[in-house]
Amino acid sequence: MDKTKKIIADSETLIIFGIIVLVTVIIASLIGKYLQRILKRKSEDQNIDSTSFVFLKHIIIATIYFFGLGWALLTLPISENFAHSLFAGAGASTLILGFASQQILSNIMSGAFLIIKKPFKINDIIEIQGNRGRVIELDLHDITIEDEKKDKILIPNSMISNGIIRNVNKNLKEKINTQ
């Protein structure tokens, strides 16, 4: 009888875990679509720079996933032995993850600085290390530009922050203003 109760309790826990994960994904998806619709409407109506808004949208969605998945993990029963094993391996895991995520963190920090400094915005025509195109998306990891052949080029943010950026739009605006 005890085994049956344990199996039922474990099944209920896994169902609750699955429901929380599913609800988290649905909420993040709905909020992402809602924010995208607001962005499209505002940029069409008021000609607003959408670069900062896109970055904020990614931060909000990442936060929803972080809290939702954290909450889901709290529902799982973790045995004491498992917890000790987990903490024992945490040091090695941290070291491995630190080396593995160095480039990712570099791209994220570079993306944050690009949002703050704003050397370009969405729909600007830029040139970075021989790649020239219109900026169509800027997120935490990279930017996407579209060249004149309509090819999409993904450029990591760390490459942008360490390279030379030529903003053709700013040059055109300066030429128009001086004439």
From TrEMBL:
Gene3D superfamilies: 1.10.287.1260, 2.30.30.60. It comes from the Bacteria. It is a multi-pass membrane protein. Pfam families: MS_channel_2nd (PF00924). The chain crosses the membrane at residues 14-35, 55-76. The keyword Metal-binding does not apply. Residues 104-169 form the Mechanosensitive ion channel MscS domain. One of its GO terms (molecular function) is mechanosensitive monoatomic ion channel activity. GO terms for cellular component: membrane. Keywords: Membrane, Transmembrane, Transmembrane helix. It is found in: Membrane. Belongs to the MscS (TC 1.A.23) family. This is Mechanosensitive ion channel. It comes from Salmonirosea aquatica. The lineage of its organism: Bacteria, Pseudomonadati, Bacteroidota, Cytophagia, Cytophagales.
